[in-house]
Amino acid sequence: MKSDQPLYQRTGFLFLGILLVSFNLRPSITAVGPLIPMIREDLDLSNGWAGFLTTLPLLTFATFSLFSAAIGKRLGNARAIFYALLLLLFGTIIRVQGGPDILFIGTGLTGIGIVICNVLLIPLIKNRMPQKIGLVTASYTTGMTLFAAIASGISAPMAIDLGLGWRGSLLTWVVLLVLVLLIWFPQLKWKTPERQTENDLPKINVWKSRLAWEVSMFMGVQSLLFFTIIAWLPDMMIDRGLSAVEAGVLVSLMQIVGLTGSFLAPIIATRFKDQVGVVWVLGIMYLIGFSSLFIHELWINYLGLTLVGLGLGSSISLAYTLIGLRTRHEKTTASLSGMSQSTGYYLAALGPLLFGIAFDIFADWNLLIWLMLICSVLFIYFGSKSGRSIQI
Questions:
Q1: Within the chain, where are the H helices?
Q2: Most buried among 34, 199, 222, 364, by the most CB within 10 A?
Q3: pLDDT per residue over 325-374, tens digit each?
Q4: Which one, of 183, 219, 156, lies nearest residue 345 by Cα?
Q5: How many other C-beta atoms can be found within 10 angstroms of the C-beta atom of residue 51?
Q6: Rounded to an integer, what distance in angstroms lies between the CA atom of residue 175 and that of residue 15?
Q7: Are the CB atoms for 139 and 262 separated by under 8 Å?
């Protein structure tokens, strides 16, 4: 039996579009890690500048998180997401066309496109699919994690085995971007419904809330863990004897392990009165997993990185879930989302850059492990504060 609804209003078609958008929100970042040795050699970059290549998208995430909600309000969330995808496509194409300057400019543009999608998908889901927020959010974060893993795993093989080089490897993601633009285009016909009356809602300044800062710091620490280890683990494992392809596959498998946590974390977390226990379990997994990297036995490293991967997948979903659980009203949720992603990504941006500079000076991979362990302790601290059953 055919539906009388236009295609863009059908739940299944919208769900497909959201999934395809999520598939495009990490490859332009995670595909870079395994290619850093090639990029560094080809463009004669220092380790600090190579680290900045991964840091730059995070800086754009942090900055444009502050403006994404206003962009969505002006254009409508669906239209703003479409334009953001176009910007992501443009940045992906131009960043492989020249030297370091063009590479950094294009990378910055991809970061702007990604963060607009990142911020606006959450209110779009809440508005268009209010009865399926948990399932759609879990699917969205799982799709993001899945393609982050795929990009890490296939970028080096495409560059080396297929002879595409690092430029061709990064450029192949244009195909997926064109596909999502075609699928998302019908959503431009969606008319934004009348805004809900806000006169009766309390005016809350999340920037003055201690709990909001704790949630934001939790978002930042988990992001710092993810982006730093994704950027530098391949190089570290290459130094321990793996090939570039093997190191990329290892990082990919680590993220694939996290898919289970990414999907289940929101479902499990919402079944408890508070989420402190969940945070402690993930934090202990991080401490054990990262500590295993001090031992130069690959099989021990693989076991430890399995725990790390499960933690990484769970952490991002848990962070998104806490934003909703710690707020009473939709308006406050949107404000906290913008604040936590902005301040959180500024903090996360420090990780790859500072370690790259430190490694240039000391040339010691143990510094990466210690940085991850310190952040794991901070993860537990801020997560325990954010996980309490209180609201802004």
A1: 11-23, 27-30, 36-43, 47-75, 77-94, 100-128, 133-160, 165-171, 174-184, 210-239, 244-269, 276-291, 298-325, 330-362, 366-386
A2: 34
A3: 888 776 677 778 888 888 888 888 788 878 888 888 888 899 999 999 99
A4: 219
A5: 26
A6: 20
A7: no
